[in-house]
Amino acid sequence: MNWRGPKTILTLSTGILSLIYFATVLWEPDQAPSGQTKNYLRELGDGQPATVAPAESSSGTPQKIKSNAGAERGEEATEKSGEYKSNLDVSSLKATELHGFTLRITDQSTGEPITDAEVRVYRAARPDSPALAVMSPNHLGQVSLEHLPRAQYRIEVVADGFRDAEPLAVEIPADGNKFGFKLDRAAEVVGFFEGLDGSRSPMGMLRLTHRTTNESFDVRPDGYGQFHSPALRQGMWHIAWLRHSLAAPDPRLEQTIELLPGDRLALTVTLDDGDPAQEDGRPVAIRLN
Fold it and tell me: pTM for the complete prediction?
């Protein structure tokens, strides 16, 4: 006579474990996020957050932009006339696991809101990936972004006529939900190269170096000898004309200028060039117009 005790015990144990699994999966709608969700949040949360000051409060209503969980991942977000697409899929998260923030952009010198700007939000862990959101501020200089999982993000702001601000690294919601950017008005230098006969010359380049920070830009003229610098910070700048990027500067073609926020200085760079028969006695120099 065979004893079937072990086989019976094994069958009963398998049945009990199946019932436990069935009850856990189907009868607990408030269960914790799955392992897949946790991995996704870890993917978003690399990097080191920075402490930031909250933006000034305002009685106005900021622009509300909600992400579209059904959009394809990897597609860059855009926002035009209220239309918005996000490549961030939050469909596996509960409402209590989603957060948001409000950002205000103002002029550093006047405190006025900046409305002609672009705000981009990126994963801190993936700085080269497409933006999660691209937004424009409302008339109060504000944008609001919602439906973000707890993670670390990088926020970038650019605005016409202002210097690019340093990116903001924040952890949402640990660092709060109100942030601010105060942008400095950009200064710029424009002008043209000419020969001793007054004809335009596209020869050489200008090197602009900030005296305090040693920040440097090489500016080359177009085919008509005209040049236009990038947005520059305020302060003292050393300007030197060079024949090429590795050449030594000509002492006659060096100048130091002071730039204030919003300045637009025009320079004339007169080179030792041109038709000698047409020279009118103008010196080789960099002159402020």
Answer: 0.60
